[in-house]
Amino acid sequence: MKKQNKHTFIYWDRVVIALCIFVLIIIFIVMGIKAIIGAFSDGDKSDAVQAANMEAGLIGDGQKLLVCVDAGHGGEEDCGALSNDEKRFESNDDLNMALAVEKHLKKLGADVLMIRNEDKYVELYSRPETANDAGADIYVSLHRNSAETGQGVEVWVNYDAPDDDTLLAKNILDGLDEVGISQNRGVQYGYQGYDPTAKVNYVVNEKSNMPSCLVELGFITDDEDNRLFDENLDAYAKSIAESIVKSAEELNIIEQR
Ligand SMILES: [Zn+2]
């Protein structure tokens, strides 16, 4: 009996040592792979390594970017602008674009806070408040324009042209312009339809604590803009997501890749 007890004791002892060695080997292997990936990204910054890092959500030094995506309007109470035949609701276009932007932001490794992900009414002032409470890093509100005549894309920031917001707006606009839009209407300041000297802002821009902008993705009252919106929905969304991440890097919210 004594011999058996002794034998059992030695057996477990060896298992523990073997397990320790095994864990150490795994740690060394993981550290080795990380060092190799680090060497690659510091060196030629190959797209493949970047993509692998992004896929794994390793933006910057592991800090995740939190983007608030705000689909404008929503619900029966607020369908936003209407197409000329009144069959097309801005709220639906805004939501479809927001869902596509969310998809692409997640692919790029960012966390996304959606103001709405279905057709429901959300009170205007609660939107930036939600982003502020969550500590979002960037706020992007998605809308479509309307007018008797007019076409093209414009992006709005506060009337006093904050540097960070203007950079974000410009990056988004440049990206969309590259995909293809009917007209680049530029970065706009303040609030549409108001006297520019009145110093009035969109609520979402004014009340959000982080860099923000409001994107008017073409005119819902213009056939060409609607065609471009439908044909390029995914390409626009991808471009917006990439411009948001690029802006986060340039604003040092996340580490430059
Ligand atoms: Zn709108």
How are the strands of the biggest sheet laid out side by side?
A: 2-1-3-6-4-5
Indicate the CATH topology of the largest domain: Aminopeptidase
Largest sheet: 6 strands, mixed
Helix content: 40-55%
Specify the number of helices.
8
Average residue-wise pLDDT: 86
- Beta content: 5-15%
Tell me the CATH architecture of the largest domain: 3-Layer(aba) Sandwich
Radius of gyration: 25 Å
| CATH homologous superfamily heading of the largest domain | Zn-dependent exopeptidases
Task: Provide an overview of this structure.
This protein has eight helices and six strands, in the order H-H-E-H-E-H-E-E-H-E-H-E-H-H. The protein starts with a helix and ends in a 7-residue tail after the last helix. The protein has two domains: 2-44; 63-250, Aminopeptidase (3-Layer(aba) Sandwich), CATH 3.40.630. It is 49% helix and 14% strand. The chain is elongated, with a radius of gyration of 25 Å. Helix 3 packs across helix 8 and helix 5 packs antiparallel against helix 8. With 257 residues, it is of the alpha/beta class. Strands 2-1-3-6-4-5 form a six-stranded mixed β-sheet, sandwiched between helices. The structure holds zinc ion. The site of zinc ion has 5 residues, from loops.
